[in-house]
Amino acid sequence: xxxxxxxxxxxxxxxxxxxxxxxxxxxxxxxxxxxxxxxxxxxxxxxxxxxxxxxxxxxxxxxxxxxxxxxxxxxxxxxxxxxxxxxxxxxxxxxxxxxxxxxxxxxxxxxxxxxxxxxxxxxxxxxxxxxxxxxxxxxxxxxxxxxxxxxxxxxxxxxxxxxxxxxxxxxxxxxxxxxxxxxxxxxxxxxxxxxxxxxxxxxxxxxxxxxxxxxxxxxxxxxxxxxxxxxxxxxxxxxxxxxxxxxxxxxxxxxxxxxxxxxxxxxxxxxxxxxxxxxxxxxxxxxxxxxxxxxxxxxxxxxxxxxxxxxxxxxxxxxxxxxxxxxxxxxxxxxxxxxxxxxxxxxxxxxxxxxxxxxxxxxxxxxxxxxxxxxxxxxxxxxxxxxxxxxxxxxxxxxxxxxxxxxxxxxxxxxxxxxxxxxxxxxxxxxxxxxxxxxxxxxxxxxxxxxxxxxxxxxxxxxxxxxxx
Length: 469
Description:
By secondary structure, the chain is mostly helical. It has 3 domains: 5-137, Fumarase C, Chain B, domain 1 (Orthogonal Bundle); 143-231 and 249-395, Up-down Bundle (Fumarase C, Chain A, domain 2), CATH 1.20.200; 405-460, Orthogonal Bundle (Ribonucleotide Reductase Protein R1, domain 1), CATH 1.10.40. It contains 17 helices and 8 strands. The protein has helices at residues 25-33, 43-63, 68-82, 101-118, 131-135, 141-178, 197-219, 242-254, 264-269, 272-298, 328-352, 362-386, 395-404, 413-416, 418-431, 435-441, 447-453; strands spanning 5-10, 13-18, 182-187, 190-196, 224-225, 259-260, 309-310, 392-393. The chain has a two-stranded antiparallel ribbon with strand order 1-2. It is elongated.
């Protein structure tokens, strides 16, 4: 900005706007009213609103509502923005007046000024192309912003799920590599029956796969658009064919199989579809957080912890303790998960706070759903690339812990009974010997029988220990 200003007017009166700004009076007011966070609208959300404006101009050119020259100028302006130009002009804080009117008008003003510039008119003139009369024709913030939230979320979801899928694949690969390795199982952080390391990794992958499936199911509802509902969902000031044609125009612009919503009033009233996607994403995040925590626990040590896994060293772990290496990537993932839980809590509260025909809390919903999708997707991809694919197993420690596990006595219960097995466990712990050693020493099993009954690999599969299928 040069420091020079131009004078504009809106329904509240005169407003000074930076002379070289492509936005106008209502955006300038919003800048002054909402210097809250310094966070600007997410680029995916801006793109979604711009695509809606482009689609509307195309539809209006076809119906004759806008002169071809006006429509073409708006389309050219939208294409310039979608191509990466003028991105610094979308400046309204994330936390703004309800519904997103300020963001909608920010886009309207920028596109109007860019369109007029193509037609040889100075910015701030708003003739022949006006932000409300032409760029916003047949639209309201109330149908534009909920539609934009859906489009932005769906756009963010693709790469986000790709990150989750990459992590799932990496876990499956490690599961296959680690399948021969038997380790101590743990429940309540206490000794439990053996499990193969590959089974543990496969379980993590399965949880993420189920979570991603739930997310995809929830996302399908976002394909239903209420665009054309205008002010309260009834479609006032829009032609009868407008809503259908808008969906048709948005499909190629987004690459999404969008649908015209059956009830635009309902789609305007409720943010439930977005909240459902957020909830499914949160559930996936919870499972991912457990994976990260499990990796940290299994890699604890190296001398004073479990030390069953070795994670790739990605950076020094301490500014004071030489040679220390921390589980940096899982730690990052845990923190991202905490943030996604916070995003979801905000979305849930905001979704519940709609009133009557509109949910005015859409700006904060928009910010949180796109941010949540983006950061968890990135975290998943980074965990796969910089951690999981390089994990190795410490086979010596796997063997050490599983042979010391008191839970191996469980395999003896079918032969000697639960009470006797429990007593044997207590003695093994008290004497500091393994269950395998004690059961042979006490003559309860021969060495050959103990080998057969306490076959660790067999103990990770269905069946009665020591009994042939």
